[in-house]
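Possible regression after last week's pipeline update?

I re-ran a chain I had predicted before the update to compare outputs. Posting the input and the new output here so someone can diff against the archived version. Not blocking, just want to make sure nothing changed silently.
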Amino acid sequence: MVRRLNVYLYGQKAGILSEDSLGRLEFQYEDDAPPLSVRMPVRKTIYEPIYAEPFFDNLTPEGDALSLISKNFHISEENTFSILNQIGGDCAGAVSLYSDEPKIYIDTPLKEIDHVLLSKIIDNLPTNPLLTGMENAPRLSLAGAQSKFAVYKAGDGKYYRSDDEHPTTHIIKITNKHFNGLLENELFCMTLAKKFFNDAINVELKIVDGRKYLEIDRYDRKSLNGKIERIHQEDFCQVLGYLSRKKYQSDGGPKLPQIYSAITQYSSQKATDGYKFIKLLIFNYLVGNTDAHAKNFSFIHLDKNNKVILSPAYDLVSVDVYPRKIVSHDIAMTINGKGTYDSLHKKDWIALFTQLHLNATSMMKEMKRTFLNIIEDSHVLADQLNKNELTSSDIYEKILKNIEKRYNTLFE
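New output (post-update):
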């Protein structure tokens, strides 16, 4: 028996995703459809599983969220089609999947998420991922393993339940009992990143009824004439054709040179994005973000003709400030064959730049100039955050030590 889902992009039907009796996925474009991926340009013939499966697999959640969704809906974690059939209405980017035609909402009142409901959602989120336990829950799919959900934030500053006419605009992340100060950690790293990346996304630490949470702008959304529009994006597992479970190099996933090569092949601003990618690698090294895997780098589609640029910096967290007994310190993609930041020296970065066919000497000088004030900037930021009771945290001191040590290793 063949099952089918209608795939929409920018609200336009792009094609049909099919699952055959063996569970294999295929995709076929509609005529005059916008392209889903740089790896899958529009064509008349069907895209076989080697193309379709990586793209659609990477739209599904991961980790505990996927396990709980699977249990809630009584479907297999391995069945990408069934997962998307249940929660594919508001995926990352501008993709939506429906078994029938999407519903049209005209003048339907939005349902507010007030402080009482928000507190309840936060309390229940670890066992109720993506709001799947709510009555008439929104059909949204957020990739990633961290506990989070998404909301529509209106012009009045209030949160509302999303629907097909009001896509989610912000991601809400909650505390994690295993990682002390995780929200403050991401707040610090993302705020510091804005010193070096003009387009780094905005994050804000908030509190509701004693519960802290991080409000994160979605970079794959924009406001146009007062209406929220989706922006299409694809992560580098999709760009390079890897399943989500292979997002780490150690699991057979992408390597740094592959991502850099894809940027120089597909980006509409190759030099700018190539340079930005190198800056991100250095920033991740300095703060200790070992979890910079292939799904944490993405392309944004600027139009419906596969014109793409590298996405803003997102999901920047100092992972190796936490003990090895609770989290691996292995980096997601090796540098000059080395798998931890503590094992790296200046020569390894020079070797990487050479491997990427860059002028290593010039690149080292440019990176030193770029990050010349990062230690001072980090101390100023930590002092600012510690003056506020809400954002104060002892995690900043650990990140500062990382930055100072790594800066001296790389540039002194």
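Follow-up from reviewer: compared with the archived run. The first helix runs from residue 49 to 57. Marking as no regression found.
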